[in-house]
Design goal:
The protein is an all-beta fold. The protein is built from no helices and 8 strands. It has a single domain, classed as Vitelline Membrane Outer Layer Protein I, subunit A (Aligned Prism). A hairpin with a 3-residue loop joins β7 and β8. It is globular, with a radius of gyration of 14 Å.
Length: about 100
C-alpha cells in the first residue's frame, strides 16, 4: 500500500506483489471509509483486502476478501487523514487516523 502526497512525497508499506492501482483525489475530495479484510498467511495475520471510499463515492479496492472484515467510517464532520500500522514484506496491521474537516 502506498500514497503520494501533493508535494510528490511517496509513502509505502508492505510488499510489491499484486496489481498496482491508484486514485487521485479531486479538489475538496477526501476519504470517508476503509474496509479491511484479514486472514492468516505463514502463521501470521495479514491484511488481504482494502477498499477505500471517498466523499464523492469513488472507490479504490484491491486484494482478496476474507470472512474477517471490518469497515471504519469517519464520523460526521471528520475525514480519514492517514494510517498507522505494521508491515514488512506484507501488510500486517492497518489503523485509521481521523481529523476534522
Amino acid at each position: 500500500m502506498g500514497l503520494t502526497l501533493a508535494n510528490g512525497t511517496s509513502l509505502t508499506h508492505g510488499g510489491t506483489d499484486g496489481n498496482a492501482q491508484s486514485l487521485t483525489l479531486g479538489s475538496g475530495e477526501y476519504l470517508t471509509s476503509v474496509n479491511l479484510c484479514e486472514g492468516s498467511a505463514s502463521g501470521s495475520t495479514r491484511i488481504f483486502y482494502v477498499r477505500f471510499t471517498t466523499s464523492l463515492g469513488r472507490i479504490l479496492a484491491g486484494g482478496t476478501t476474507t470472512s474477517d472484515c471490518v469497515t471504519r467510517t469517519a464520523p460526521s464532520g471528520w475525514q480519514i487523514a492517514g494510517f498507522h500500522g505494521r508491515a514488512a514484506t506484507e501488510a500486517d496491521k492497518l489503523g485509521v487516523i481521523y481529523t476534522q474537516r
